[in-house]
Structure formats: structure tokens, C-alpha cells
Amino acid sequence: MAYVSAATVRSRVPQLANTTTYPTAELDRLVDEFTEIAERYLGVAYEPRTVTAEQVVRPNRLVKLAHTQVRSVTAATVDGVALDAGELTDIVVDLLTGTVASSRWTGSDVATFTYSHGYDAPTETLLRACTEYVRSVAFADRSGQSRDVIAQSMDGSFTRYSTPDWNRGRPTGFLEVDRMLNSLPVFRPAGIA
Predict the structure, then answer these.
(1) Which of 24, 126, 154, 187 suits a disulfide with 122, CB 3.0-4.6 Å?
(2) H or E element: which one contains 157?
(3) Does 193 map to a domain?
(4) Average of per-residue pLDDT across 93-107
């Protein structure tokens, strides 16, 4: 499910009401684009998602799943053998960090985990950021100015535009969108883009 629908974007930004100029499919694509950027930048899903991941597990070692805010491990196999419901309860999961441990690992086993992760729903700040991103990109696609200006010098005819730069806290390059994203907790490890 998308963070916001095209209809919601149109109600929040009346300038996008024209369905010929701003087709629903385009607005939906921009919402999906923002969702991908935001979740990668923040390191957490803001809607429940289910994934399957394969990892090598070793005795007495924690396994770090690829996601945080793990909701549950719904299925697991070790060396191709599925764990039954009783064995699944033997798996200890730190839901916040996404680490998994079990006394079931006996050697260098290959384990496959199916798990759900993410929050129940996006925050209002994230919904506002999504709407602003859709508005900014849709308008930029139809105007001569594609980015926010972050520096300008009249005498030297110098203009500097904001562009995406994760290391400087600008995941989208749109200043208001980036401000809102940076106000949310970040769960991705430092240095991961």
C-alpha cells in the first residue's frame, strides 16, 4: 500500500488537481519513488513488509537481519530443513535491531528467514514529506527550475542548487522534504547509503 494516494496528494496540493497535466499514474510513481528513498535513507519501513533472506549462521553468534523493527519471524529453515512452530519459538529475535539468535545453529549453517518488519503506518511528518516531494518533483518536471536554490550571487552570476547528498543530510535535494526526513529517527548504520 502506498503512503498516500494520488487523491490525497491532490487534496493536500490543489495545484495538482488537473489530471491531464498531473496524471494519477505519475503521482503514484512519485509516491513510490519517495517511499524507496525515505525507507533506504531512514533504514526502516513505515508500513509492514514481509521479506525472505538467506544468511550463514554460526553457533553462539547473533545474525543481523537486513531490517530493523522486525515484527516477527514467520518461517525459518536451517540447511534446507524447515523449523516447525515449536522450533520457531526457540529463535530469539531482538525486534528493534533485527538480530536473531538460536541454540539451533550447530555449525556454519545456511538459514533462511521469512519475517515481517516495519512500523504500522507512516507518521504525519513522513506523509507531509511525501506530499511535498511529489509536489516538488511534479512542478520541477514542468518548469525551468528543477531544484531549490541554496546559494546565489548576483554580481558573479553564480547560482548553486540543492542536489541529493546523503552525507550532507539531503537525501532528495528538496530542502523542505529533507528537513522533514531529518527530523525522523534514523535506523540505518552510519556510512550506509
Answers:
(1) 126
(2) none
(3) no
(4) 70
